[in-house]
Design a protein that fits this description.
The chain is mostly helical. The protein has one domain (about 5-75). It contains four helices and no strands. It has helices at about 5-10, 25-35, 45-55, 65-75. The radius of gyration is 11 Å and the shape is globular.
């Protein structure tokens, strides 16, 4: 399963495009995203997901920073 698809599944979103919209995450959903192993996906996939959920042209040198950024973006969407 691709990273964005996995995040879509965790958040119970109907479409991947819903991830770029404002939405409320439960603590459980947020924790599940935090628990995704960074080694399960390539740096490119982490960077692509970070760009998609933030709608910003961000690029990271390592997967952990990209994951932290994704979590911070999703945590602050309301």
């Amino acid at each position: 399963m691709e990273l964005l698809e996995r995040i879509r599944f965790i958040t119970n979103s109907e479409y991947i495009s819903d991830l770029a919209c404002n939405r409320y995450l439960t603590f459980y959903q947020f924790h599940e995203i935090e628990e995704i192993n960074i080694d399960d996906y390539s740096l490119k996939e982490w960077n692509d997901a970070a760009k998609y959920v933030s709608n910003q042209n961000k690029e990271f040198n390592n997967s952990l920073d990209a994951k932290k950024y994704i979590c911070s973006i999703l945590m602050h969407k309301e």
